[in-house]
């Protein structure tokens, strides 16, 4: 998406040349905003066009060859493109419009009611609403200090992974990581320094992860790392140990000229088995982490 909303990239998905011409000419007359209009005749073309990330809003006709009505919108939404969509169709039926919005469209405009004012307003509001919803969802799922996923996002994403494990035959493990002696850092240097350590730890944790893994902060100094598609418990420990060596490196605090002491971290790991959900995995990982803490700092224990 472009950042300058005075210059808006519009993708029209319609197989009628007359409608495409009508939309292009109508938007060209706008005095307040500049619209750059491109078009596709079907959803396959649209999927390729949307990959470049230069589209701000989609105007979608519900009648595209083999797909008709709300099925067209459902097929578009199934593409997974993070772009607001306004349904622009020849079917003048308020019930279809309401259903389209419930499915995920930002607005619904019958072609016989289209005007420059209505169209530009619908496009502007669609972009603004979509951005607001994205921002609210991000806040609801993101830890504000580190930018990592929070407990809510971890639950949602991991539940989906677990549901697919039995079909895929893949592997999954949950590593619970806890900073040892973190209270001493806060007491010695202050909470601002503690925040710096947490942010540095989070940055190192999410660096160089595989796309199938995820990390989250679920408490003050507690983090979760979900690992998938590993070959064996031995290879799992190797991956975690390499990451642990990165995590414990000294952190340069703003208040100090010298880096503080090495970060110490305990790691408890629980492997998924049929019948286990995230709550059970976290409970097992917590028990393993407790053994890690009391068995010596910087130890990795698998439940």
Structure description:
With 303 residues, this protein is an alpha/beta fold. The chain is 46% helix and 19% strand. The strands form two sheets. It has a five-stranded parallel β-sheet with strand order 2-1-3-4-5, with helices on both faces. Strands 7-8-6-9-10 form a five-stranded mixed β-sheet, with helices on both faces. Helix 4 links the parallel strand 4 and strand 5 (107-110). Helix 7 (182-189) crosses helix 8 (191-206). The protein is elongated and about 75 Å long. The chain starts with 6 loop residues before the first strand and ends with a strand. The relative contact order is 0.09. The model has no long low-confidence stretch (mean pLDDT 88).
- Uncertain parts: none
The fraction of residues in strands falls at 15-25%
What is the helix content? Answer: 40-55%
Order of helices and strands: EHEHEHEHEHHEHHEEHEHE
Largest sheet: 5 strands, parallel
Taken from the alpha-carbon principal axes, the silhouette is elongated
Biggest sheet strand line-up: 2-1-3-4-5
Distance between the termini: 45 Å
């Amino acid at each position: 998406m472009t950042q300058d909303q005075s210059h808006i990239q519009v993708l029209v998905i319609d197989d009628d040349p007359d409608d495409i011409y009508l939309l292009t000419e109508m938007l060209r007359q706008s005095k307040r905003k500049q619209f750059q209009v491109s078009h596709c005749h079907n959803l396959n073309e649209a999927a390729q066009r949307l990959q470049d990330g230069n589209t701000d809003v989609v105007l979608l006709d519900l009648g595209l060859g083999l797909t008709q009505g709300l099925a067209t919108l459902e097929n578009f939404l199934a593409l997974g493109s993070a772009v607001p969509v306004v349904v622009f169709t020849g079917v003048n039926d308020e019930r279809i419009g309401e259903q389209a919005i419930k499915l995920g469209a930002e607005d619904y405009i019958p072609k016989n009611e289209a005007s420059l004012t209505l169209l530009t307003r619908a496009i502007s509001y669609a972009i603004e609403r979509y951005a607001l919803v994205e921002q609210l969802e991000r806040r609801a799922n993101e830890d504000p200090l580190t930018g990592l996923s929070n407990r809510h996002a971890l639950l949602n994403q991991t539940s989906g992974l677990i549901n697919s494990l039995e079909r895929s035959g893949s592997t999954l493990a949950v590593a619970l990581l806890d900073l040892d002696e973190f209270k001493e850092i806060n007491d010695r240097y202050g909470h601002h320094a503690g925040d710096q350590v947490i942010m540095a730890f989070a940055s190192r944790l999410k660096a160089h992860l595989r796309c199938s893994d995820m990390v989250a902060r679920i408490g003050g100094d507690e983090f979760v790392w979900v690992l998938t598609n590993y070959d064996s418990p031995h290879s799992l420990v190797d991956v975690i140990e390499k990451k642990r060596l990165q995590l414990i490196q000294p952190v340069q605090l703003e208040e100090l000229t010298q880096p503080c002491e090495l970060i110490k971290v305990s790691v408890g790991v629980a492997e998924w088995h049929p019948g286990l959900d995230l709550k059970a995995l976290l409970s097992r990982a917590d028990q393993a982490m407790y053994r890690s803490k009391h068995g010596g700092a910087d130890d990795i224990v698998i439940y």
